[in-house]
């Protein structure tokens, strides 16, 4: 099948590597190789969500059947369900592999007969190929099948409309074929009553990448895929000379981050048996690349769409709602039997954490730390899983100190295990794909599974594998996995550690993990992060959380227009919030709501500004905060919980908080003078100066 794209009324052209689809765009698809369908079909997209290159859910297409001269002879409306719509390049076979048109037609005809004879009447698509778990991708040349179709497998509900009559799929035969490019195709062929319009109906083929050249749904399978992309885009530099993981790597990374430099891959650390990847998320650009988007706000918009509470109106509204449900259904992780992370296995006395090039970041650190280990635990009573990102101090060749802060879910799991007098199984995954790595740091509510969230971000399910010695699951494509347990009541001093606050955290007793099994890929890459006072690599992670969770915060507090968590405030010390002010003391109401919103409760300083103030422009925010505030009236002081690492509070875990109302004051708030008008230049003068700017000779 060949694919051409006709945008608007322009000439048809070959589908580019990636195209941004918008309402009104036309896809012109032809299938010359089929003996059953020789004429082209043209679809015009009626509705595309937010002009995304990719989107999930139901799409409504107006379909035009064309004659051989390209004239439309019939118009039909089609509803199809897919996930992750993307136009991607179709790899071409080598010249020797190409078949003539007659050969392809003969093969197609033969395959059609054999599949019709071999497939049972009610054969179903394998579960892993169902649209709920993968969804078909629109690929240049091969992802939209134009095959006769009336009925679909029972686990794929399809709707086609013609002249007011609905055709529902269910139970039709299906066959699986593997093409030259490694793509397995599920070809749905019905018998009996076919759709009466055109030489054949309009079908949709599911595709699964089995390791060939065809594009996958999400661009990264594991950390190595992400590193390759960064290097290709000029966002990664290799350091080929020997470098010491004790302090030297930290100084190199700190200078690189503060210069806005690239991610770094240290190929020859002087300690450990694998290269070290650092500063992967140090910029918002790389953070967006890590999550497979152009802008972090794209993910926030997806979450905002999911949270819209409006009741669906009409059939198209119902289809949109169903699309949201299908997104949710495709999120849970998928268990696999074998995994790359278990290619190499060390047990018992063979376990040696010194194989890992853990870092000592600052001179005063208490030893070697593993700073990007994704820790997995399970609630001993409910069985609910938790994934968290905590620093791990290496005490010996097989023991780790677990820095589990008081507000974290793993701390709660450990407390229950100790109350029951039980060991707590623990698994730590190092070097996961970038989405899973981010999800481990996301401030999710306790009842939302981190891997469910990662599946939402990826647009496809995360593959998980059972650990070898503990009853937990870990990402199948992790670079290194540590399995072990924590004895009830056991503690060892942990720290000091130079943390993201810019200060050393004190020595405190924390639980100890005994590592019994160590698994890894054959050529693993060790992932770590350097912490220090801002700016540092965690800026990208913090900004991702800010943008991704903005719609959720607005859903909880609709008064909020936008917000900013400054990196200088290490993201949990300060929040700048803009509101659409409507009544007296509205700002104070929002302050209290923020202090009651999950992890935002740890915020020490909240500055509220009007909606016309850009919360990301610190100069503008300072102008409002310095000029619009009577600090005897507009300052709200209170007490509440603060971060475990906060050194300024006189008591650990709680302290003082302040809210600053920098909005315009209303007469009903007791302001009796009449708020002055802010100075702005007239639009006519601005336009005149813009037009004549070059004449002035001013640079």
Automatic annotation (TrEMBL):
Domain annotation 3-octaprenyl-4-hydroxybenzoate carboxy-lyase-like C-terminal: ranges: 541-662
Domain of life from the UniProt record: Bacteria
GO cellular component: cytosol
Region spans: Disordered: 91-123
Pfam families in the cross-refs: UbiD, UbiD_C, UbiD_N
GO molecular function: 4-hydroxy-3-polyprenylbenzoate decarboxylase activity
GO BP: any one term: ubiquinone biosynthetic process
3-octaprenyl-4-hydroxybenzoate carboxy-lyase-like N-terminal domain residues: 227-302
Compositionally skewed regions (Basic and acidic residues) per UniProt: 94-120
Domain 3-octaprenyl-4-hydroxybenzoate carboxy-lyase-like Rift-related, chain residue ranges per copy: 335-534
PANTHER family: 3-OCTAPRENYL-4-HYDROXYBENZOATE CARBOXY-LYASE-RELATED, FERULIC ACID DECARBOXYLASE 1
Annotated family: Belongs to the UbiD family.
Name the UniProt record assigns to this protein: Menaquinone biosynthesis decarboxylase, SCO4490 family
